[in-house]
Structure formats: structure tokens, C-alpha cells
């Protein structure tokens, strides 16, 4: 676009400039809409329609601005006057427009003539005031300075400058409702939150939601904060960033022993792992090894069907949709039907509700029953498991990994890619060490 | 307009009542509650690995549950699955649309998803029969850009979008199961609770909302930020929500007290938060900012205890692995760094 505009302003082959009359001041370098169209048609050999479109784009992107009605960015193919925007304010050179500059512009307008700001400008002004409050003194100072400097110019220049600035800001901060041509891509400025249609429906919904929210039970902040403290404390030893980890942090030592020791299936689990099962029932159930140990315990107590039922429900909740009906039927046969092989003990109310829901089985039809069994296990079997010999012996036999000696090779630190560490110095060489010999690609 | 004015007054008065109820349960300050806790001291983390390979800004990353693999999305139109220990690229998936803004790894490790300005969430199967990674589903229904997506399982995924809604999809059939509408600004991020019953979303209307996945309703709304909420995450015990915003602060909202309990801010921090992640115990919160750094906050004392400086451009995404071992940051300088 810039090339076109520059060509248009060429004194020889460009548009013939006329003078604009503004009361008594004469401002040079103006042209009419018709001039623009004629010139474009001739120069580029295009139809008048296309010239109109092209000219319109020049207008919308801020390279040309109208003198009569600044807000109307449509090219009129008649006697309405236009002028070229100075390169200082071209969209390509000054984008994105900074918040600071906009603030200064609005401040100037505000100072020059009190109350001259339009409604939306006033809103944005106060918003900016909140956002960049820390540099507000600078903004006001700059505005005053710029106004003072402009007073020393000739009137014609002053008017031209004012028009140029106004045109620039109309493009870069369009009034609400006008689509911004600069609004595209990921870096577009976030919409200055326009309120959704404030219809009565909106308020009615707000009121309904607020009424519900008012009725909710709120826990004391002391209790909540206490909860966070306890949790962080409990898990502190398990947090490698806080506490480091044994035998060694694989990222630092390049030794994957930690992961091997903690993988899903190990003959002997680590101590931290077994300890974490006592933190909460959820923690126990989320560890596959924990689940297996718990199952073994339940089998001894002849209540294993509870855990089996719970696992089957989980499978339905998160599994494929196509097999839901089949799985629900399976569950009914095995766990819920009278005289079933592994009958689970659910209260009659929940049972009735579940049976009713099973007529149209869906993913969550067994939720209530599952919840009931979950709490049964949590209140009864879980605490007893933690006190049982099975758990205690596992805990005592659990591995407390020795800290592996970190190699003291000087350039170990700077290495960014893994390579087999000087083998001798590092503890339990695992299979992985060999496998990684030729591992890394060019970094 | 008499009716409107009345309704507006009623809405305002209810809001005031809610605020009063919230104040009523504030029986202590953070300083008092955390007075007995030992100070963390300076946390220094070093870059252990740098993952090079992207050719343009990285917009998102997500760890797999095995804590070794991770996926990253960049505007060069590629989704790369990295073995972060060896820094090898396991998969480099070319995307149809290069304007990608988010990516996610399924808990099972079988699927990855991504989406962006194409308004669609594309699901890729990593464990295809012939070893090729192909598009499994394209979930299209949003009318705005996809800002974030998270898997619940191999069959369900939740997406948040610039059209102010979030959607729960059934991946098998490619259809929407539930639409969560209520935000009044673009939804920028979402996080799923550890028990998979709820999820939270942060939006450009300066609030975050807690949604019941099954019911499709908004359980709680947390106002308090003064600008767009860009990042959101659950505190590891599932009882609190941590949010990061363009107003340069991070806040912790407790679900049971229904209000903001802690604000993480510092006068020297003057740029917005782009992403955040809590450490495994929840004691530390790592947050990425526009000034190219990551600040580490002590969650219980609300103090800054460390800085990760090393990127040459904005930190756009951050994630802590499931075993809490390492933190990965992705930046507009096209590199991913692993720290601990």
C-alpha cells in the first residue's frame, strides 16, 4: 500500500493537489475523492469499481483521511476533500499503537477543551488511568508539553497535525461498534470488555445464580489455610523440587535408577511410596501397586468384591462408549443381582435407584452405588488395612534408596545432553544405562 | 426502564450479601496461619536439558503421566513429542493449521490433542497400528479459537474457546456431550480436578468458574482479578484454584471458603502472568511472565523465593511433571527448557 501512496503524492505524476478552504485559513495539499479514483483508474488501468475499492482500503488502513467527516471511512467519489496521512502515522510504521501514546492523546484532548472527549473515550481514559497509574504523571506532563509546543506553530500546521493525529487514533482505537481493521492474528489487543447485552434476562440469570451462591456453606479461612499447610507438610518429602530425591535426581545425575525403583511393577516398593498410601484413600487407589496390596488384604477379609465392583465402575465411567451397555450388564450379573457370585452390600434406596437407572444404561448410571461402596471401604476396610500386619510388614521391608555418589567430573554440570555417566562412580547400573549409549541426536 | 433498574439493584444487593458472607468466614490472615511454617529459603533451579527443534514460537506444552515424555506445539505448524531425558524427538507431527495455541497429552499416553485459530480440536493417535501418527478425530463446533484442551480419558476431552464456552466431547463419536456457557469473555485456560469430577476455567471477563463436569452447571465463580485470567491450575489437594492474570498477580481461591485467600504479587513485577504450575506438594508455585522470566513463589508465605531466567522471549507455557521431578518451560524463543 505504501508504494501506491507514495506514487500518488509524487509531484509530477501524482494527483494534482488543490487547496482546502477552511473559513479563512487555507490548507494546502488536499484532494477530492473523485481525484483519487480517477488517478488510480488511469495509473493502474483498472475499472472504476476496483479503484473505488482500492481507494477505500487506503482510507480504512489510515493512509488517507477525510477532512469533512473524520469518522466516515468510506471513500466518496465526489468533491469531498481528503488528505494523505504523514508517514509518521502510517499503520506499518507505528503498530501496535501503544497504550501510553493513547493515554497522552486522550489527556491532551481532555486538557485542551474540557468535556470534548466522547463517551467511549472517557471510559477508556479512566480505564487507562487505572491500568498505567504508575506513569500517570509522565502522561500528563507529556500532554502539557506537546500542547505547549504545538501552540508555537502556525495555525495551518496545527490544524493539519490535529487532523492527522485524530485520524490515526480513529483507526487504531476505533469507537465501539466499528470493526477494527487491525483486529487479527494472535497479537490483537484484547477487547476492552464490552458489556454483554444488558437485557433483563441477563440480570434474572445473575440474580438466580447469586441466590444459589448465597445459600452455600462457607468454611472458615483458618480451616482452609490449615488444610493447605498440612498437605504441603505431608508431601514435602515427596516433592523433589523442595527436598531432592533418592537415590538421585535423574535429571542431574543422568541415572534413571529413581524411575526404575518407582515403576508400576517392582518386587519391592520404596518407603516413600508405601508411606504415601497412608495419606489418603485416593492415593492408595491411584497407585496400581497399592490397589493390588489392598486387594490381597481384602481377600483375606472376604470383602474383595467391594474393590472389584469399584474398579468395574471406574472402567465404565472412563471406558469406550460402545461397550457401556455390555459392561453394565456384566456388573449387574456379577455384583448386584440377587444371589450373584460377588454380591455387594448396597442399601435398598441406592439399589432401587440404580436398578431404575439401569433400564437406560449410561456412563454414570452406577455412580451412586460406586460412591456408597467407596465410602464403605474408606470408613471401614482402609483404616484397618493401615493397621494390619500386611501393611506394616510391607513398610518395614520397603526400600530406602541409598544416595548414589554423584560423579565429580568437572564438565558434568555443563553437559546439556545425556550421555553415560562415568560408570564406576555411579550406583546400581541399570539396563537403561547401556541402552542409552548411542542415544543423543545433535542438540 | 424501571424494571431493568430494579433488577440491576437486586443483583447488586445480592452480590453485596455474598461478599458479606465471604468476609464473615475470614477469621484469620495468611501471616497468622502460616506463622509456624519454616521458611523455604532461596530456591535455585538450573536448566538440565534444552529441547531444540521448533522453528517458531512455542505456544503450549504438556507432560505425559510417565514424567519423561512431553508434547509441545509451535506456530511452525508442528506438534513434537519429546523424550525429555534424552532430548530425542519421538514424534514430529505436521499440522493442517499452523496457528496452534494449545496441546494436551492423554493420561493413558495414547493420544495427543491440539487446536488454535482453526476453531477445532484435532486428536492424534500416537499408537496407531502401522506406527504412523494420524488424525483420529477433528472436533469442530466452537465458533471461536481454541485456547486450551485437556483429556479426561481416552474417550473424553474438555476444550475452552474464544467463543466464551467450554465443551465436553465424546472422542469416539466426535460429538459434543455438554456445553458449559456462562463466561462473558474469551475462555483462556482450563484445568481438571484431580478427581475428574470438576474443572475450572479462566476467562477474559476477569473471573474463573468451577464447573461440575457431569451436571454441566457452574458451581462457583471467583471474581477478584483486574484483568484477563490467562492461566489456571488446581492446588494438588483439589481444594483450591490458583489463577494468573494480566494484572501481574496470581491468586489462590479456596473452593470451600468460596473466596480469594492469597495474592501473589510484588511491586517489582510489572508484566502479566502467562502460565503457572504448582509443585507436587503445593508449597511452590512456578509462574511464567511476559518479561521472559519464571518466578517461583512460596505458596504459603506469598513471597518470591526464586527466579528462572534463561529464555530470550516471553515464557508462554510451563508444566511440572507428574512425579514432581522437573519443571518444563516453553517460550516464544522456540526452545523448551527442563529445570530442577
UniProtKB/TrEMBL annotation, chain A:
<dbReference type="GO" id="GO:0005737">
    <property type="term" value="C:cytoplasm"/>
</dbReference>
<dbReference type="GO" id="GO:0007186">
    <property type="term" value="P:G protein-coupled receptor signaling pathway"/>
</dbReference>
<feature type="domain" description="RGS">
    <location>
        <begin position="280"/>
        <end position="395"/>
    </location>
</feature>
<dbReference type="InterPro" id="IPR036305">
    <property type="entry name" value="RGS_sf"/>
</dbReference>
<feature type="compositionally biased region" description="Low complexity">
    <location>
        <begin position="418"/>
        <end position="429"/>
    </location>
</feature>
<dbReference type="GO" id="GO:0043005">
    <property type="term" value="C:neuron projection"/>
</dbReference>
<dbReference type="InterPro" id="IPR000591">
    <property type="entry name" value="DEP_dom"/>
</dbReference>
<dbReference type="GO" id="GO:0005886">
    <property type="term" value="C:plasma membrane"/>
</dbReference>
<protein>
    <submittedName>
        <fullName>Regulator of G-protein signaling 11</fullName>
    </submittedName>
</protein>
<feature type="domain" description="DEP">
    <location>
        <begin position="11"/>
        <end position="94"/>
    </location>
</feature>
<dbReference type="Pfam" id="PF00631">
    <property type="entry name" value="G-gamma"/>
</dbReference>
<dbReference type="Pfam" id="PF00615">
    <property type="entry name" value="RGS"/>
</dbReference>
<dbReference type="GO" id="GO:0009968">
    <property type="term" value="P:negative regulation of signal transduction"/>
</dbReference>
<dbReference type="InterPro" id="IPR036388">
    <property type="entry name" value="WH-like_DNA-bd_sf"/>
</dbReference>
<dbReference type="GO" id="GO:0008277">
    <property type="term" value="P:regulation of G protein-coupled receptor signaling pathway"/>
</dbReference>
<dbReference type="InterPro" id="IPR015898">
    <property type="entry name" value="G-protein_gamma-like_dom"/>
</dbReference>
<dbReference type="InterPro" id="IPR047016">
    <property type="entry name" value="RGS6/7/9/11"/>
</dbReference>
<feature type="region of interest" description="Disordered">
    <location>
        <begin position="410"/>
        <end position="443"/>
    </location>
</feature>
<dbReference type="Pfam" id="PF00610">
    <property type="entry name" value="DEP"/>
</dbReference>
<dbReference type="Pfam" id="PF18148">
    <property type="entry name" value="RGS_DHEX"/>
</dbReference>
<dbReference type="GO" id="GO:0035556">
    <property type="term" value="P:intracellular signal transduction"/>
</dbReference>
<dbReference type="GO" id="GO:0005096">
    <property type="term" value="F:GTPase activator activity"/>
</dbReference>
TrEMBL record, chain B:
<dbReference type="InterPro" id="IPR016346">
    <property type="entry name" value="G-protein_beta_1-5"/>
</dbReference>
<keyword id="KW-0175">Coiled coil</keyword>
<keyword id="KW-0853">WD repeat</keyword>
<dbReference type="Pfam" id="PF25391">
    <property type="entry name" value="WD40_Gbeta"/>
</dbReference>
<keyword id="KW-0677">Repeat</keyword>
<dbReference type="GO" id="GO:0007165">
    <property type="term" value="P:signal transduction"/>
</dbReference>
<feature type="repeat" description="WD">
    <location>
        <begin position="222"/>
        <end position="263"/>
    </location>
</feature>
<dbReference type="InterPro" id="IPR019775">
    <property type="entry name" value="WD40_repeat_CS"/>
</dbReference>
<dbReference type="InterPro" id="IPR020472">
    <property type="entry name" value="WD40_PAC1"/>
</dbReference>
<dbReference type="InterPro" id="IPR001680">
    <property type="entry name" value="WD40_rpt"/>
</dbReference>
<protein>
    <submittedName>
        <fullName>Guanine nucleotide-binding protein G(I)/G(S)/G(T) subunit beta-3-like</fullName>
    </submittedName>
</protein>
<comment type="similarity">
    <text>Belongs to the WD repeat G protein beta family.</text>
</comment>
<dbReference type="InterPro" id="IPR036322">
    <property type="entry name" value="WD40_repeat_dom_sf"/>
</dbReference>
<feature type="repeat" description="WD">
    <location>
        <begin position="180"/>
        <end position="221"/>
    </location>
</feature>
<keyword id="KW-0807">Transducer</keyword>
<feature type="repeat" description="WD">
    <location>
        <begin position="308"/>
        <end position="340"/>
    </location>
</feature>
<dbReference type="InterPro" id="IPR015943">
    <property type="entry name" value="WD40/YVTN_repeat-like_dom_sf"/>
</dbReference>
<dbReference type="InterPro" id="IPR001632">
    <property type="entry name" value="WD40_G-protein_beta-like"/>
</dbReference>
<feature type="coiled-coil region">
    <location>
        <begin position="1"/>
        <end position="31"/>
    </location>
</feature>
<feature type="repeat" description="WD">
    <location>
        <begin position="51"/>
        <end position="92"/>
    </location>
</feature>
<feature type="repeat" description="WD">
    <location>
        <begin position="139"/>
        <end position="179"/>
    </location>
</feature>
